Amino acid sequence: MLKRPPRVLAIHDLSGFGRCSLTVILPVLSAMKVQVCPVLTAVLSTHTGGLGEVVFRDLTEDMMPTLAHYQKLDLNFEAVYSGFLGSSEQIDHCLAYFSQWKDALAVVDPVMGDHGKPYQTYSKEMCDQMVKLVKAADVITPNLTEACILLGEPYPTAPLRQFEAKKILAKLSELGPSQIVITGVELSDGTLTNLGYDAVRGQYWRVDCRYVPVSYPGTGDIFAAILVGALLNGDSLPIAMERATRFLEIAIRTTFSYGTDPRHGVMLESCLSWLLEPQNFDRYELL
Ligand code: PXL
What we know:
Layout: E1 7-17, H1 22-31, E2 35-46, E3 56-58, H2 60-72, E4 79-82, H3 88-100, E5 105-108, E6 113-114, E7 117-118, H4 124-135, E8 139-140, H5 144-151, H6 162-174, E9 179-186, E10 192-198, E11 203-209, H7 219-232, H8 237-258, H9 268-271, E12 285-286
Helix pairs in contact: 1-7, 2-3, 3-4, 5-6, 7-8
This protein binds 3-hydroxy-5-(hydroxymethyl)-2-methylisonicotinaldehyde.
């Protein structure tokens, strides 16, 4: 039994304004009683999603000395969790962190794109490197765009049928990870859903989402952070998925009701207390 809260080494950027990356990951995981130890990849004035020219400080060269320091301190982590990465070199450094803490749950949120397209900052070389990182992961949380980039497949032009969705999940698990979650998938039955696959149990899961006609930055980061916290606290995969899905529904619907600028992200502060309260989960289904 651990005599302290679970501890996550979180390799992410800090974007000052716009509610993404560490500004949402830290409060979410702290609320879930998980200790976060951030390793910063970069500091930005805002996220890169349409708020103008970003002030950017790259911190790649601090990543390996930080690893060496933690090694010297003989620190243990229950999870190593990476997110938005700015260069191939940073991806190599993440691989070094995964090798250093082999027993830790290796979680990769392969932040590469959305709405069918890679982000402008994402070169073909980085997409290939991200495949290497995914191969070293236990858990991955791509959206459908990222899932397609990882598999080198075109983004589907029509909603997916169940067997097509299962095929994508199974192919991603063949790369290495045993738990796959794909967010924001439109199924041919008219639902928007988050899909999961537990390759050890051979089970496919879905948690359907209530649709809201707006999209906010940082929601993928919140989803992955809740999933990490939930898994470390002993949730099963479908319950971890439902916890993340339900929280985001509340955060998105709260924000939508106020009509704030979508680029400012979701009103996390108003909703965070939901994570502290006991919840019952009965919305997950087998896919
Ligand atoms: O939410 C992912 C993310 C993280 N960090 C930065 C980003 C984005 C998405 O746009 O720009 C800097």
